[in-house]
Specification:
Blueprint: E1 5-8, E2 11-17, H1 19-22, E3 26-32, E4 42-44, E5 48-55, E6 58-62, E7 65-69, E8 74-77, E9 83-86, E10 93-100, H2 105-115, H3 123-132, E11 135-137
Antiparallel strand pairs: 1-2, 2-3, 3-10, 4-11, 5-8, 5-10, 6-7, 6-9
Length: 141
């Protein structure tokens, strides 16, 4: 698979294994620049997710638990659990993300299209794209 970069707002996604080739799991490299606070809290209806930090520190929240993950550390997100991440630190963070089954690279391309129109993100369009792939934005309480 061609590991071309997909730029989604501040994030860079580089797919290493697309689920279309495995019939299930996919893996991508995620690069999160310093000062990033995206994506918004959300859950996956159809996917489990595992993150493994390669470089830097990534603040990762799953349900009520928030941890600062360093290289070699992991965190698991069960299906349907609200999660989010940020890099409030001064150095870039990189991680491997495994989704099972895979969301697919096209999800990130579709989100990048919504975010790439300029100005504030169109929340309705973003919610629609996320919904097509089984992702649900978390509503603040």
């Amino acid at each position: 698979m061609n590991a071309s970069e997909i730029h989604v707002g501040q994030l860079t996604i580089r797919y290493l294994i697309d689920g279309s080739s495995t019939g299930s799991a996919g893996i991508f490299e995620l690069t999160v620049p310093p000062g990033s606070n995206v994506p918004p809290p959300h859950s996956h209806t159809n996917n489990e997710e595992i993150i493994y930090v390669l470089e830097g520190v990534l603040r990762y929240a799953v349900g009520a638990e928030t941890r600062d993950l360093r290289p070699g550390e992991t965190m698991y997100t069960p299906k349907g659990t609200v999660h989010a991440f940020a890099n409030p630190f001064e150095i870039q963070a990189r991680a491997l993300v495994v989704n099972s089954p895979d969301i697919g690279a096209q999800f990130f391309r579709d989100v990048a299209t919504v975010l790439g129109v300029g100005g504030p993100p169109d929340k309705a369009a973003l919610t629609q794209v996320m919904g097509r792939y089984g992702l649900v934005l978390s509503v603040p309480k």
